[in-house]
UniProtKB/TrEMBL annotation:
<comment type="similarity">
    <text>Belongs to the isocitrate and isopropylmalate dehydrogenases family. LeuB type 1 subfamily.</text>
</comment>
<feature type="site" description="Important for catalysis">
    <location>
        <position position="143"/>
    </location>
</feature>
<dbReference type="InterPro" id="IPR019818">
    <property type="entry name" value="IsoCit/isopropylmalate_DH_CS"/>
</dbReference>
<keyword id="KW-0560">Oxidoreductase</keyword>
<dbReference type="InterPro" id="IPR004429">
    <property type="entry name" value="Isopropylmalate_DH"/>
</dbReference>
<feature type="binding site">
    <location>
        <position position="227"/>
    </location>
    <ligand>
        <name>substrate</name>
    </ligand>
</feature>
<dbReference type="GO" id="GO:0000287">
    <property type="term" value="F:magnesium ion binding"/>
</dbReference>
<keyword id="KW-0479">Metal-binding</keyword>
<feature type="binding site">
    <location>
        <begin position="78"/>
        <end position="91"/>
    </location>
    <ligand>
        <name>NAD(+)</name>
    </ligand>
</feature>
<feature type="binding site">
    <location>
        <begin position="291"/>
        <end position="303"/>
    </location>
    <ligand>
        <name>NAD(+)</name>
    </ligand>
</feature>
<keyword id="KW-0963">Cytoplasm</keyword>
<feature type="binding site">
    <location>
        <position position="227"/>
    </location>
    <ligand>
        <name>Mg(2+)</name>
    </ligand>
</feature>
<comment type="function">
    <text>Catalyzes the oxidation of 3-carboxy-2-hydroxy-4-methylpentanoate (3-isopropylmalate) to 3-carboxy-4-methyl-2-oxopentanoate. The product decarboxylates to 4-methyl-2 oxopentanoate.</text>
</comment>
<dbReference type="GO" id="GO:0009098">
    <property type="term" value="P:L-leucine biosynthetic process"/>
</dbReference>
<protein>
    <recommendedName>
        <fullName>3-isopropylmalate dehydrogenase</fullName>
        <ecNumber>1.1.1.85</ecNumber>
    </recommendedName>
</protein>
<dbReference type="GO" id="GO:0003862">
    <property type="term" value="F:3-isopropylmalate dehydrogenase activity"/>
</dbReference>
<dbReference type="GO" id="GO:0005829">
    <property type="term" value="C:cytosol"/>
</dbReference>
Length: 366
């Protein structure tokens, strides 16, 4: 059925197409049972796009992504393409999407499902009920700042340089995303930087504070040095609701937070761009945190829940279908509670493969 909910689906490589197959079944279910339909286009990205078009992302696919506004991606990469030149590598396809869609806010939820508390690397009492959202700035900071490079400085010495740069508008737009998320969650934002040693950190703290005063006074704001944040994340993670930080600290803190919750096969993510002033809609890309998992691809044993939850993040953040997202997340929780497990989750009473997990989820949704 035609609808104004357009989506570009890019299953990609390795287990990507396997887990995306289960999302397709959820989309069919929504059409049939909830009368919510999507206009889904499908295309290639990564190694599979290289094999067909000689590039990890064809121009036509890039244009479709911009036209659709919403991309759901599986995974890219694999040993087959490891030795390609830099600009042909599967990962470049994903980077091009992020760059041209101008996705500046990366959302990484770290949520501990009750049924998986035992799978966490931490004590049950520390992680039970954990539900954090990390917002990482994605297009600035030390990853892109100039000058950068390696140079000879004489006497056999060399120098490697990176520069951390942030402007006020870069800080404000990502902080605004964090405040708006907090308003729909626990109403608290922790902003992390190292204002004690970095100028960009001083500016970050000032701008977040100003924006808070101007527009988000109802949200509780706290500032924390990033190193202390890392410690608190392991010591008492439930003190956090939304954490917002720069590109580099966000990379590190979101990986650390992921390990609090158990398996990679459970972790979704979203990357958001600027809101269109006319429609309020944002460019957005949703993808699981895990990669293409070449070691298990083709075996039908990959856990599809990270990708299904990435779809539910799309419902929540791109289509304003929060109630439907809740339904899917709750169904996943119930399925896990009933003991259904893919191999990566261990334990449980009913071992299933990728489609078995999909079956269990659809049954629970019904
Ligand atoms: P990338 O460089 O793309 O991040 P990677 O090799 O670092 O890839 P993954 O591809 O995510 O990481 O795989 C890491 C490990 O986790 C592998 O052993 C893989 O089998 C496992 N894994 C990843 N995703 C899943 C999943 N959905 N279900 C089951 N196991 C998974
Ligand atoms: Mg990796």
């Amino acid at each position: 059925m035609a609808s104004n909910r357009t989506m570009l689906m890019l299953p990609g490589d390795g287990i990507g197409p396997e887990v995306m197959g289960e999302v397709r079944r959820v989309i069919d279910w929504m059409d049939k049972r909830r009368h919510v339909s999507f206009d889904v286009k499908e295309d290639l990205v990564g190694g599979s796009a290289f094999d067909k078009h000689g590039t990890p992302l064809a121009d036509k696919t890039m244009q479709d992504a911009l036209d659709c506004g919403v991309v759901l991606l599986g995974a890219v990469g694999g040993p087959k393409w490891d030795n390609l030149p830099f600009d042909k590598k599967p990962e470049r396809g994903l980077l091009r999407l992020r760059k041209e869609m101008q996705l500046f806010a990366n959302l990484r939820p770290a949520k501990c499902f009750d049924a998986l508390v035992e799978a966490s690397s931490l004590k049950p009492e520390i992680v039970r009920g954990l539900d954090i959202m990390i917002v990482r700035e994605l297009t600035g900071g030390v990853y892109f700042g100039e000058p950068r490079g390696i140079s000879d400085i004489g006497n056999g010495e060399r120098r490697g340089v990176n520069t951390q740069v942030y402007t006020t508008s870069e800080i404000r737009r990502v902080a605004a995303v964090a405040f708006e998320l907090a308003q729909k969650r626990g109403n608290k934002v922790t902003s992390l930087e190292k204002a004690n040693v970095m100028e960009s950190g001083v500016l970050w703290r000032e701008e977040v504070t100003k924006l808070h005063q101007e527009k988000y006074k109802d949200v509780q704001l706290e500032h924390m040095y990033a190193d202390n944040g890392a410690m608190q994340l392991v010591r008492a993670p439930k003190q956090f609701d939304v954490m917002v930080t720069d590109n580099l600290f966000g990379d590190i803190l979101s990986d650390a937070a992921a390990m609090l919750t158990g398996s990679l096969g459970m972790l979704p993510s979203a990357s958001l761009g600027a809101a269109d002033p006319a429609t309020g809609r944002r460019m957005a890309l949703f993808e699981p945190v895990h990669g293409s998992a070449p070691d298990i691809s083709g075996k039908g044993i990959a856990n599809p829940l990270a990708t299904i939850q990435s779809f539910s993040m799309a419902l929540r953040y791109a289509y304003d279908l929060g109630a439907d997202a809740d339904l899917i997340d709750q169904a996943a929780e119930n399925v896990l509670k009933s003991g259904v497990r893919t191999a990566d989750l261990g334990g449980g009473s009913a071992k299933v493969g990728t489609t078995g997990m999909g079956d269990a989820l659809l049954k629970e949704l019904d």
